[in-house]
Design goal:
This protein is α/β, with parallel strands linked by helices. The protein contains eleven helices and seven strands. Helix 10 packs across helix 11. It starts with 7 loop residues before the first helix and ends with a strand. Bound molecules: S-adenosylmethionine.
Length: 284
């Protein structure tokens, strides 16, 4: 089903086009992730929701100040800097896109956080670190791109020390793709292909805890966080539906792949759940 190898060209298409880069830099303030809205809060405050989601991650990691943490798929390093600045963690980010890494280093330097954040090229299926290196690891909306989720989880397990903590955040299909109604599958699969979301075709809400256990983790919590994510989906759709229509008709739609995805995601929302999985590498 998946390419079984890193699809760098696909990822460059998703994140590298000028429209996508403009969208992430200017609109999302360099974050490439969704947001967390508490009941009663306004859904329109997207940056606050993103910040709150980062705080959920920091609380689930629950690691002491100075702990060494791996950010698997760090993008421009927004989450790594949040963990360093607000939770006192020492974060190493890896990513496979050189322009994301360059941006991450530049922004960390500007924030005077380059003593607590470092970024290097690395594919999370083949991490360039010895066994037992980190106290914690996380993936903020990146496992969706995995071409081999069991292998990625085995690598994360290998580089964590015994007792090390893992937090995975991101969207996934509620059931295996084969179990979706044909109409739903016809809607979802082209979307996943366009976004190089190979992992999202292989794991889903029902099998990810099992895959974590098979990789050697003890699953602490599999939280269906969809209610906290839904306000962001609604706001993003409302903000960008019309701009996307205009660009689709008058501009070059291929240039705006990510704007398109933020809008089209809304059309498949009933088949997508947003999860926060927390797991531990056992000590014995
Ligand atoms: C949705 S973005 C999230 C970026 C960052 N976590 C954030 O929240 O801002 C997904 C990131 O995963 C990276 N990525 C995809 N496949 C990867 C792999 N095999 N190894 C490392 N990073 C990968 C992409 O290059 C991209 O930067």
């Amino acid at each position: 089903m998946g390419a079984q190898q890193l699809d760098l060209a696909g990822l460059r298409r998703v994140y590298g086009r000028s429209g996508s880069r403009w969208f992430y830099t200017r609109v999302a303030r360099n974050a490439r992730h969704w947001g967390w809205t508490e009941p009663g809060q306004s859904k329109w405050r997207l940056w606050r929701a993103q910040r709150q989601l980062q705080d959920v991650l920091g609380r689930k990691l629950a690691l002491p100040v100075g702990a060494r943490v791996l950010d698997a798929g760090c993008g421009a390093g927004v989450v790594a800097r949040a963990m360093a600045a607000r939770f006192g963690l020492v974060v190493t980010g890896v990513d496979v896109l050189d322009f994301h890494l360059a941006e991450a280093r530049r922004l960390s330097n500007r924030a005077a956080l380059d003593d607590r954040t470092a970024f290097s090229w690395g594919d999370y299926h083949e991490l360039p670190f010895p066994d037992d290196t980190f106290d914690g690891a996380y993936s903020m909306e990146t496992l969706v791109h995995s071409y081999d989720p069991p292998r990625a989880l085995a690598e994360l397990h290998r580089v964590l020390r015994p007792g090390g903590r893992l937090v995975l955040l991101g969207p996934m299909s509620t059931v295996p793709l084969e179990e979706l109604e044909p109409d739903a599958r016809a809607l979802l699969v082209p979307y996943l292909d366009a976004m190089t979301m190979t992992g999202a075709k292989l794991y889903h809400a029902r099998n990810l805890p099992r895959l974590l256990a098979e990789a050697g983790f003890e699953v602490e919590e599999a939280l269906d966080a969809t209610p906290w994510y839904t306000p962001t989906s609604e706001a993003v759709y409302a903000y960008f539906r019309l701009p996307w229509e205009v660009l689709r008709r008058c501009g070059d739609p291929a240039k705006w792949l990510n704007l398109r995805s933020t809008v089209e995601m809304y059309g498949v929302r009933e088949y997508v759940a947003w999860y926060v999985h927390t797991a531990v590498k056992p000590t014995a």
